[in-house]
Amino acid sequence: MRNTDFFTGNIQNCVSELVKVRKIRNFVTAGKLLCVAFFIWGIYKLFFPPVDFVVYAVLCVSVILFIALSVKDTGIVDQINQLKILIKINRTEKEYIEGDFTNLDTGEEFMDPSHEYSLDLDIFGENSLFQAINRTVTLKSRKLLAGWLTKPLKDASLIVSRQNSVRELADDSYWMYKFRCRGAYAEISESESFYIQKWLEEPDFFKKTWIIRIIYIVNAISLMILLAALLDYINPYVPVYLFTAQLFIVLFTIKKINSKSQDLNKVSATIDKYYELIDVIEQKEFQSDRLADVRDMLMNGERNAGFAFKELYKILNGFDQRNNILIWLLLNALFMRDFHLVNLVDKWKSKYGDNIIGWMDAVEEIDALVSMGNFSVNHPEYIFPQIDKGTVADIRNTAHPLLRSTVKVSNDFRLKSMHEIYILTGANMAGKSTFLRTIGVNLVLAMSGNVVCAESFAFRPLDIFTSMRTTDNLSKGNSYFHAELLRLKELKTIAEKSD
Question: CA 360 from chain center: how many Å?
Answer without folding.
Answer: 10
